[in-house]
Amino acid sequence: MLIVIKSEEKQENVNKIKRKMKELGCEICEFKGQTYYLIGLVGDTSNIDPDLLNANENVEKIIHVQEPYKKVNRLFHPEDTIIDICGRKIGQGHFTVMAGPCSVESEEQIVSIAKEVKSAGASILRGGAFKPRTSPYSFQGMELDGLELLKLAKKETGLPIVTELMSPKYLDKFIDDVDIIQIGARNMQNFDLLKEVGMTKKAILLKRGMSATIQELLMAAEYIMSEGNENIILCERGIRTFEKYTRNTLDLSAIPVIKKHSHLPVIVDPSHAGGLWWLVEPLAKAALAVGADGLMVEVHNDPANAKCDGQQSLKPEKFKTLMNKLNKMLEIEDKKIG
Amino acid sequence: MLIVIKSEEKQENVNKIKRKMKELGCEICEFKGQTYYLIGLVGDTSNIDPDLLNANENVEKIIHVQEPYKKVNRLFHPEDTIIDICGRKIGQGHFTVMAGPCSVESEEQIVSIAKEVKSAGASILRGGAFKPRTSPYSFQGMELDGLELLKLAKKETGLPIVTELMSPKYLDKFIDDVDIIQIGARNMQNFDLLKEVGMTKKAILLKRGMSATIQELLMAAEYIMSEGNENIILCERGIRTFEKYTRNTLDLSAIPVIKKHSHLPVIVDPSHAGGLWWLVEPLAKAALAVGADGLMVEVHNDPANAKCDGQQSLKPEKFKTLMNKLNKMLEIEDKKIG
Amino acid sequence: MLIVIKSEEKQENVNKIKRKMKELGCEICEFKGQTYYLIGLVGDTSNIDPDLLNANENVEKIIHVQEPYKKVNRLFHPEDTIIDICGRKIGQGHFTVMAGPCSVESEEQIVSIAKEVKSAGASILRGGAFKPRTSPYSFQGMELDGLELLKLAKKETGLPIVTELMSPKYLDKFIDDVDIIQIGARNMQNFDLLKEVGMTKKAILLKRGMSATIQELLMAAEYIMSEGNENIILCERGIRTFEKYTRNTLDLSAIPVIKKHSHLPVIVDPSHAGGLWWLVEPLAKAALAVGADGLMVEVHNDPANAKCDGQQSLKPEKFKTLMNKLNKMLEIEDKKIG
Amino acid sequence: MLIVIKSEEKQENVNKIKRKMKELGCEICEFKGQTYYLIGLVGDTSNIDPDLLNANENVEKIIHVQEPYKKVNRLFHPEDTIIDICGRKIGQGHFTVMAGPCSVESEEQIVSIAKEVKSAGASILRGGAFKPRTSPYSFQGMELDGLELLKLAKKETGLPIVTELMSPKYLDKFIDDVDIIQIGARNMQNFDLLKEVGMTKKAILLKRGMSATIQELLMAAEYIMSEGNENIILCERGIRTFEKYTRNTLDLSAIPVIKKHSHLPVIVDPSHAGGLWWLVEPLAKAALAVGADGLMVEVHNDPANAKCDGQQSLKPEKFKTLMNKLNKMLEIEDKKIG
């Protein structure tokens, strides 16, 4: 961390800042330029709150040299993390496809879709029981009943299940019933929820918030890890920009950037990114090509009558075609789905 | 709501869509252009999920004519809503200033600042007990102890208190102890929390999410109102853009836009918007000029040693100067603080 | 185009608007809902300025059903446009790689890089002679001398050349010397320049502005086409968002969206998008996978001493590795480079 | 400027970088932390291209301590710049209102509006002769004829005129006929045009680009100043964000930020920012309150028949009301219009 002070600042004010830093246990380096005077803090400064320094009216600005995250930082953990979900590996060379409907609607619906996505090669079943909807008048999910139907579908197909947790009050239920707990984009900075799931041992699928920087996504993962849970899968699902043709702008550059800075696996959700079914295939292929560790894809047997997000769901046959194309691409990379 | 279909679409597909709309209870108008065929739905369509239609592959797009919110919509409630907080009115000509430290740090701190802001003219005391912080290693607030200190400060000064609720688990405590429950920007779409506070009768200060559109802010308020609670104060606090000099970009145009579309009062938080103390005064004055119903301002007696956000806090004497300037501006508008 | 008027509006005001529309030659449909009254204009409304209607204080808003572009619109020109550059085809199944240094620096540099990229499989040579730089103190390009060196490199290798035109004053020179005229992101809405190149027959590479919507990009192409030049290649090169790790956010969803709405070929510039050399390979592969018609890649033999943008340039050997990987991917798609 | 290198980097690579910096004439400071090694460059580094260093694969990143602009920087020019336009002062306590129609349409129109805005207190007449329009099919302005009409209006009223220059080919004409040359938002980084007007002595009104950072706006002004022209007025007119109710998001925080970092005067255009006439008054008042040096406001006698942007134009009587309100606000600040 570097503290920037105007060169003309009185020496006593500079000394006061230096003294304070030393009290906080920092070793100090100094550095005098023509217009600015720099004080560098050596060592681990992640416990020093930069707000403390910014508030000092003699400080021009604070410059961060080191990333604010530690446990998720590849610098201190060079090897890729691999997450194990009922024997299926996620990360480092494995390409995992999670697929299923936006929301669970009936036993018949979820079981039949589960069978379809399994036969096409998906290794994890997705399906929403609790749905975050922009309007209070939209379908909010089947809630606990939906969870029961997911368990049935798992029993029938053997596919582990991933579904979204929106409130700490159902956490115990999710720990019992679910294989991967999803934290949705809107809750990426619901710090209370992050701490709660951080205290479990469950695998967590953490989706990037619509306007979260990559650094903030990694800091949200740091919240979970700092409570002891290291089983985190990150998920890029599109960010909010000025562009209007697509619901969000899928930020595929985020994949190699995250892989450079963190050891956690990262997958892509091409369905929510564009919000349009005909964008799913090209974006899914691009996600594989850019180096993602997997995908989360919405599949529905009757999109036109889906209770939510039908416009971004693939029909099972289109999903099969996509899986075939992905398999061919993975062959070149010496990887396999699942 | 308008359904746009390509003119060359087969008549039977068009008929299928028309039949479905009629089943949902919609009256229909038709409209044939050269390249597109339009089906208009007459009446209240807020219960029709546009996803259902978007998923139909014969539908080119859906166009919304009417806003998706009802209870917060000025169209159906033309008069301004006025919120009463222990006898102080918020909205319609009253200009309310909520002031206090970012976080409660000690009895001495909160009581002395409460006295200072009261004497300068603030009518409500703000202070964080639970703090949403980007880093798990930053100060997270005094939590329940902080709430106790706020009550002490209220007892000493008579100022009603506003503070942020981050988790439903403390809701009962907040109902007992707090006058206005703040829902922070990061939780604006924490729908579970919105529903919970919607079932109370407490006044809610709902902050706009960092990347929330004005429509989404109004839909979040609709969540609260649809559960029965109509005591909502909206708050603009800056949105996320590409600009880097300021922490967020304060969207002051949002104030007249919200006032046109909704009857709810709306205030501005100039402290979080810019993230820099020297921006607070000009932005506060601009907020008044643009028509806001009040302000939420961070004030700290010792910003350089504040436990959080010191860099955006005003010292009490600067706050007094600001209040004097605001008073002069309000005189021209025939309004008063408080 | 739909004109939305409040239902309670006086009939005489509605009639005035209808009369005006008829004077402008529009056929009219009407449509009365509970809260709004809609007037639909049938036929080609692209000549009607919506500002005219928006300014009417009885008009609530204007809704556009049809896209504002005509000549670039796939609706009126369903087949892909193929551009011919000295016998090389761009568009519809051909995958074209344009490669070379950010800026021309010397004869030796440009000729040797031209040979390298040709032998690796590139079919067009890029190289900046005139450079748009954020700072007036940065290297501005070799200007006309750079153009001469590009011609030399073309003579040596046979590669057609693409380079950026920044001012109409050099247009004649560019028509003589250059095979593709590039209009840079910062000039995408320099309408004077667009009109000037629209009056030539040269192929134009039109880069998307940093904050241009896809619709605005297509409208910029419409400017060129409306003057008579139909030889346009579009280029996605990253848009400005809040994310800070990357210089821009590459919007790969734009490729399938553009292909749906327009018949023009579209390529991707992975070098400018991320601004970092280690992002070029993954983004280039993703661009191919998402369906782009080609790439524009910066290659430099000595990036650490390049006069500009060295940090985003690939060394020739890394470029060769990339081309090999792209070739393998193209095989699956039954396509070829060049 | 600080060069950040990983601590584990080989000493010889570090030495190579240090040697290169010394060759470029830089004095060097060093600084060794646990994970990073820092090399600081002392003195004026604005001539060192950071790309050169970023391209070095041993460099982790470059950190800028100093702003990249010099001539526009308040650090080196602490007093406010005042621009003189035919005896009217802009900057430092003067509040200047430029008003008039979006585009010049006829002699009668421009002369009558000029008289109206003059009598209401405006001191400069605006009016577009050349219009940058998103669509090639929209009205493009009366061009040179419009310029003649502006001159007539000036002759009738004595008001100096400001109008937009879109192409260097009319520069000489503008130098003769116009008092302030406007560079529009879309041309803010048309560097050729900036250099051209930089070589004149005319006052330049430089509008912020729709997606330009404040730093880029100041760098664009630096382009003009580096050619010798110091008569620059900056203009904030809204930036592009995700919000859809308003055309752009007016960034009023930019005003105090610009005033802190630069000595140039800065005005606000509330008409283009929101794109809606009913937003002009509140935004104009907010602009004054936040500290702007003036306004640019669109006024039209018949907005519903204006040839462009009628929806954002004020009628003369509404403009008068606005001017009265602004005058009252200025009294409190001990300032005057004009």
Describe this structure in words.
The structure is a homotetramer of 338-residue chains. Chain A is an alpha/beta fold. The first copy, chain A, has helices at residues 11-23, 50-54, 107-120, 144-157, 171-177, 191-198, 214-226, 254-261, 270-274, 277-290, 316-332, and strands at 2-6, 27-32, 36-42, 59-63, 83-85, 88-90, 94-100, 124-126, 161-164, 180-183, 203-207, 232-236, 266-268, 294-298, 336-337. Chain A has two domains: 2-63, Phospho-2-dehydro-3-deoxyheptonate aldolase, domain 1 (Alpha-Beta Plaits); 74-337, Aldolase class I (TIM Barrel, Alpha-Beta Barrel), CATH 3.20.20. Chain A is built from eleven helices and 15 strands. In chain A, strands 7, 8, 9, 10, 11, 12, 13, 14 and 15 form a nine-stranded parallel beta sheet that branches. A four-stranded antiparallel beta sheet of chain A has the order 2-3-1-4. In chain A, strand 9, helix 5 (171-177) and strand 10 (180-183) form a beta-alpha-beta unit. In chain A, helix 3 crosses helix 4 (144-157), helix 3 (107-120) runs parallel beside helix 11 (316-332) and helix 10 (277-290) packs parallel to helix 11. Chain A is elongated. The two termini of chain A are 42 Å apart. The relative contact order of chain A is 0.13. Chains A and B meet through helix 2, helix 6 and helix 7 of A and helix 2, helix 6 and helix 7 of B.
